[in-house]
Design goal:
Elements lengths: L22 E3 L30 E5 L2 H30 L6 H21 L4 H15 L12 H7 L13 H20 L6 H4 L10 H10 L2 E3 L4 H22 L2 E4 L2 E2 L14 H24 L1
The protein binds protoporphyrin IX containing FE (HEM).
Amino acid sequence: MTRGGLRTGPRREPARALQPRLLFLPPAGGPYAEDGRDRFAARPADLDGLPGYQVFGARPVEARRLFWYRWIAGHQISFSLWRVISDIVLRHGDDAPSEREIDTLVACVDGYSAMLLYSSTVPREHYHAHLRPRMALQHPAFSGAWAPDYRPVRLLLRGRFGWQADRSGSALADAVDRNHRTHDHIADHLVPDGKSLLQKTAGVTKAGVTPDKEDLYDNFFLTIRRPVSHAEFLAQLRERVVELASDLAENGLFPEVDGRHHPVVTSRSDPVMRPLITDVVTAVARATRLAADVREEVRA
Ligand code: HEM
């Protein structure tokens, strides 16, 4: 396992010192602004010729910086892909989306699965020493269930739209299956006792998602809600995909930490997930390209 199935383009600048940045999103479920602050949109990042990557990184990395960056960037890219999914499913409700939109849904669900893998490349001990305590300090019951943009995605991943019943065995059903398996796998890998923070605190904190919890969740992942145009939304996503490709080219999917690698998915893992190992960049880049195509249909 070596290259990520990508052609090796011209060498790019290393990821901007792996510095997480703020993600600006419109309110969950709310419209895009007509005029956002299109400061990136004038020169959108180029997704052609993204570099390939080694599965196993060749050089030791600065673990705290790298895995904090990946945890934030992987989540922010997921939020953006969820938003694209929401744009499509909310527009159609129980009417089936077009074939092109279904292709985009498949690509976004696979892109989200790739981000589950990317975020969880953190060694387990590091996750328990640094990332998890930080989330628990934000709130003791901190949970993905509080993600504001996730609601319509949950419906899709649970097959709740009438038109999904006709698509069993289809590319979308397969992508949803891959996504469930990937989330279950990374959760088991990072937290072998199986208990999320939410489950650990059940009975201690009052359950239920509130606007405050949604804000705490956004805030942890450096996500700010304000008017954002579709062009600015896409430009931020493209920029992150370019940075992600650069990080992987530099550090490998499974970086070297303390003299060894810490693979999450291996050649012995569920065959359904294995292609993800080499396809992280191609999966998010494909979703991002299709998201741009959907724009006019969404805004029509
Ligand atoms: C890598 C990044 C991760 C992302 C983006 C993510 C995302 C999510 C989302 C969106 C939900 C809500 C699902 C729903 O309501 O249907 C969720 C729930 C859940 N996740 Fe994750 N997850 C991640 C990592 C983990 C890890 C490491 C664990 C290990 C325990 C885990 C365990 C759970 C559990 C048990 C739930 C059910 C609700 C809860 O108890 O919090 N997830 N996750």
